[in-house]
Amino acid sequence: MPTQELIPIRFALNGRTVEARVPPGMTLLELVRREFRLTAAKEGCGKGECGACTVLLNDQPINSCLKLAASLRPTDRVVTLEGLADDPLMVTIQKAYVAEGAVQCGFCIPGMVMSSYHLLRTHPQPSAAQIKEFHSGNLCRCTGYAKIEKAVAKAAAAAATSGQPAGGPAPEPRKETR
Q1: What span, in angstroms and rounded, lies between the C-alpha atoms of 157 and 164?
Q2: What is the C-alpha R_g of the chain?
Q3: Per-residue pLDDT band at 60 (split at 50, 70, 90)
Q4: How confident is the model at residue 176 (pLDDT cuts 50, 70, 90)?
Q5: CATH classification of 86-162 is 1.10.150.120, yes or no?
Q6: Which fold has domain 7-80?
Q7: Around 91, how many Cα atoms within 13 Å sit in the side-chain half-sphere?
Q8: How many Å apart are CA 38 and CA 84, to the nearest integer?
Q9: What is the pTM of this model?
Q10: Where is the stretch described as Disordered (predicted)?
Q11: Cα–Cα distance between 132 and 134 in angstroms, integer?
Q12: What is the pLDDT of residue 87?
């Protein structure tokens, strides 16, 4: 049986320039979980329908289960939930989720909070309709959506009163090599 050729790739992951050699069919989700041990993004459906695998690619949320790792370019910036651990806006979002009881089993939450983060970066004071729209690609089977939507509204209000930067793209990653 012939061995599969590995494709060399280079991109920014959570602010660090990384390199890997990947098989042609490996997804970004598989790459970040297996090779880089970043396990917040989950594989829920493998079809891009549940949003549990949401990460940011060049400041846009994507389903990492659909993105082939080999298609990443050196200029691409991938941010996982782990990469936002110290981000003040993400901390505010996470606290709001906990305060509103929006977390139950936790499987969908990494994808949900990544969508919440993108929403609040691009729409610091979102309407209820925007909150629903920005989370429409994320499925939750435990909580329903009312508590999640309330948590996002609470996070937006808290971010506004604390003077946290909002609007525009996510902060630029550090230029380091792993």
Answers
A1: 10
A2: 16
A3: very high
A4: very low
A5: yes
A6: Ubiquitin-like (UB roll) (3.10.20)
A7: 7
A8: 12
A9: 0.87
A10: 159-178
A11: 6
A12: 96
What is the chain's length?
178
Task: With beta carbons less than 8 A apart as the criterion, state whether 41 and 9 touch.
Answer: no
Q: Output the six-digit token pair for 128.
A: 């209820």
Q: Give the C-alpha separation, 18 to 3, whole Å.
A: 24
Domains of the chain: which residue ranges?
A: 7-80, 86-162
